[in-house]
Specification:
The complex is a heterodimer of chains A (428) and B (218). Chain A is an alpha+beta fold and 428 residues long. Helices cover 56% and strands 17% of the residues of chain A. Chain A has 3 domains: 121 residues, Beta-Lactamase (2-Layer Sandwich); 107 residues; 150 residues, Heat Shock Protein 90. Chain A has a 5-stranded mixed beta sheet with strand order 6-8-9-11-10. A 4-stranded antiparallel beta sheet of chain A has the order 2-1-4-3, with helices on one face. A two-stranded antiparallel ribbon of chain A has the order 5-7. In chain A, helix 3 runs antiparallel to helix 5, helix 5 packs across helix 6 and helix 7 runs antiparallel to helix 8. The N terminus of chain A is likely disordered. Chain B is of the alpha/beta class and 218 residues long. Helix content of chain B is 33%, strand content 21%. Classes of the chains: A alpha+beta (428), B alpha/beta (218). At the A-B interface, helix 3 of A face strand 2, strand 4, strand 5 and helix 2 of B.
Chain lengths: 428, 218
């Protein structure tokens, strides 16, 4: 409680002087005189006069003394003095006066008590409100500070996350490149394998043929009859199995040349896919890009993969071809991972004059409706920890957006997923 | 104790009737005013109510003098029961020497009784009074009504804490003086040891209790 506030205890004793005002009492006592009394006084318990009215001109003796009670306890007296003759009347009037004073006392006490308790309650309530207000202000200040520092923290965090995201994308790319490289290495090693093996065999064959040719040359230099010469030559021919060599050599060479050609093609595809020589935007044949992506992924496509192509003629689309390649690669790899064996991929392209539409559909398990909105979000993955960072489709989404188009996923005819990319293209 | 003035030879004690709204606190005091002898006490003061709801408090004052000349005043207050008047209840409870908790026996009022008692505990603590040491009597009022909690259940729940429980119907006029008597007895026990009412002031327990609870002869 503040120092200047009224503070009291409910039940404090109140004295007569607190409860009666001079302005209330004096007129009553004067009235007594006017009624014929010689003196009218209110005294306390000890007999001391608190209020008095006296007629100095007349004499009289005490006629009546009535106790004044407060809350049942006698706290004083009303003493009336007057002439004997009018004693009876004065006594009656005195009793009236006693009732009046009693009424005054009650009412004043009531009023004072209600005022006091009202004040006490108001003060307490006010003090409580001030305290609540102080606490709320403190709280509000704390929250404001928190909000401000929070904003700052969010900014810092966002910057950190951006850096981490870039790093992660980089890592993902490297991982993808690594996987691709491994696949392609295998693709190249295959033909190189049998080409090398063939060359070894050819080496053996050539050495034998050389032996035969040299033998024949020697035979030409020695004197003998033709029949003997023929016999020697024949014998050597049989010994060196030249016949089988001659049948074999053609096939071996043909096969090896094919193998070498295949390697050349793979390297060309890879170089084309990586677009290593190109930096800026060039007109791109989307169908060709799709084919390139498929060939680079040959090793990844797994056992018994069927690919249906429904390509329509498309106008060239100006863009950085590496971006398109990445988009197709990520979507197709998604399909491969969803259905590692017996995958049926259907790739279709179309152009309606305003938009290019590319669809890559698979016969995998499909994408449930409740995650369809989330799959393009960074870090979203339904795979086990360590087997996918969840960035593949996020990159697809971002890249397609950068190309000015949109990507969405829907159900394919076979019950799997169908990724549909639409890119607007104004053709002059 | 409101006041103990050695010089003035005066002791002022306070008893408070507490309880949920409309449980019958004011009715209790009205009955006491009706039934007890007029000597040695003042009239019941009922402070400014609107439609019979207590806003401030009611006051029934008693007054006696011990053989030694010590003036003892016992002021009996009720508090407003409505929840919003908690500040008033705190103000009235200050320096109380005893409490009569008036509960409503109707089944529907069980929660209100519990809440009010909990608020009594809180408010006593807040004004610095120890509920374990304070004279406390519990009255279950309105026994005249229909859907009330049976007496055994009440005693099972409330007597475990060690408080005396009195059944009553202020409307029908019984149990009221009994409650007040019990409270006054506990009050005497509490004051006696500290102030030596019996030895020093010649006031025995029976006298104290009789003076405060004398019933008018009909």
């Amino acid at each position: 409680m503040q120092d200047d506030a009224l503070s009291y205890v409910v039940g404090e004793e109140k004295g007569l002087c607190e409860l009666l005002l001079d302005s209330e009492v004096q007129p009553l006592l004067e009235g007594m005189l006017a009624a014929g009394a010689t003196s009218a006084a209110i005294t306390d318990q000890d007999g001391d006069e608190l209020w008095v009215a006296r007629d100095p001109a007349r004499l009289g003796k005490e006629i009546v003394s009535l106790p004044i009670r407060l809350e049942g306890e006698p706290v004083g007296a009303l003493r009336i003095g007057g002439p004997d003759e009018t004693a009876q009347t004065l006594t009656c009037i005195a009793r009236l006066l006693g009732v009046a004073i009693d009424t005054l006392l009650r009412n004043n006490l009531k009023r004072i008590l209600t005022t006091e308790i009202h004040t006490a309650v108001v003060n307490t309530s006010f003090d409580e409100l001030v305290e609540i207000n102080r606490q709320l202000t403190e709280s509000e200040t704390r929250y404001r500070q928190l909000a401000e520092s929070l904003e700052q923290k969010v900014k810092e965090r966002s910057a950190e996350l951006k850096k981490a995201l870039v790093h992660l994308l980089q890592q993902e790319k490297m991982a993808a490149v690594g996987q691709l490289a491994a696949g392609i290495a295998h693709e190249i090693n295959n033909p190189l394998g049998f080409v090398t093996s063939n060359l070894h065999t050819l080496q053996k064959y050539v050495s034998r043929l050389i032996t035969m040719v040299e033998y024949q040359k020697t035979l030409f230099g020695v004197r003998m009859d033709d029949e003997a010469r023929m016999q020697h030559a024949d014998h050597k021919w049989q010994e060196l199995k030249i016949n089988s060599i001659m049948t074999d050599v053609g096939d071996l060479l043909h096969e090896s040349l094919n193998g070498a050609e295949r390697v050349t093609r793979i390297v060309a595809d890879l170089k084309g896919f990586s677009h290593v020589d190109e930096i800026g935007a060039v007109p791109v044949d989307i169908n060709a890009e799709l084919e390139r992506t498929l060939s680079v992924l040959t090793h990844e496509l797994g056992t018994h993969t069927t690919i249906d192509r429904e390509f329509q003629p498309l106008p060239p689309f100006p863009c950085k071809p590496a971006i398109l390649g990445q988009v197709f690669l990520n979507i197709i790899m998604n399909a491969v991972q969803a259905k590692p064996s017996d995958l049926e991929l259907t790739l279709s392209t179309a152009w309606d004059g305003e938009r290019i539409r590319i669809s890559i559909a698979d016969n995998g398990p499909g994408i449930p409706h409740d995650v369809r909105a989330k799959i393009f979000e960074p870090f979203f993955t339904t795979r086990q920890v360590g087997s996918g960072t969840g960035m593949g489709l996020a990159v697809v989404y971002d890249s397609v957006l950068k190309l000015g188009g949109m990507v969405a996923v829907t159900d394919s005819a076979a019950g799997g997923a169908d990724f549909i990319i639409t890119i607007p293209l104004e053709r002059d | 104790m409101i006041e103990y003035d050695e010089q003035q030879r005066r002791m002022v004690l306070k008893l408070v009737y507490y309880g949920p709204a409309l449980s019958g606190k004011t009715s209790n005091l009205l009955q006491l005013h009706e039934q007890l002898a007029k000597e040695g006490r003042g009239d019941l003061m009922v402070l400014d109510t609107t439609n019979d709801r207590t806003i401030f408090f009611d006051l029934l004052p008693f007054f006696l003098t011990t053989p030694s000349g010590l003036k003892i005043k016992v002021k009996v207050y009720t508090v407003p029961g409505q929840v919003r008047h908690d500040a008033t209840r705190k103000a009235v409870l200050q320096r109380a020497d005893g409490v009569a908790f008036i509960a409503d026996s109707q089944r529907t009022e069980t929660a209100n009784n519990a809440n009010s008692f909990a608020s009594l505990e809180d408010n006593l603590a807040m004004v610095g009074l120890n509920i374990d040491a304070l004279p406390l009597v519990i009255q279950f009022n309105k026994r005249d009504l229909a859907d009330i909690v049976p007496e055994e259940d009440i005693r099972k729940t409330w007597e475990v804490a060690g408080f005396p429980v009195v059944m009553a119907s202020a409307l029908q006029g019984w149990g009221v003086v009994e409650t007040f008597t019990k409270l006054v007895e506990l009050l005497y026990d509490r004051i006696e040891s500290r102030y030596r009412l019996s030895d020093e002031h010649g006031l025995a327990k029976a006298d104290f209790v009789r003076h405060l609870t004398l019933v008018t002869a009909d």
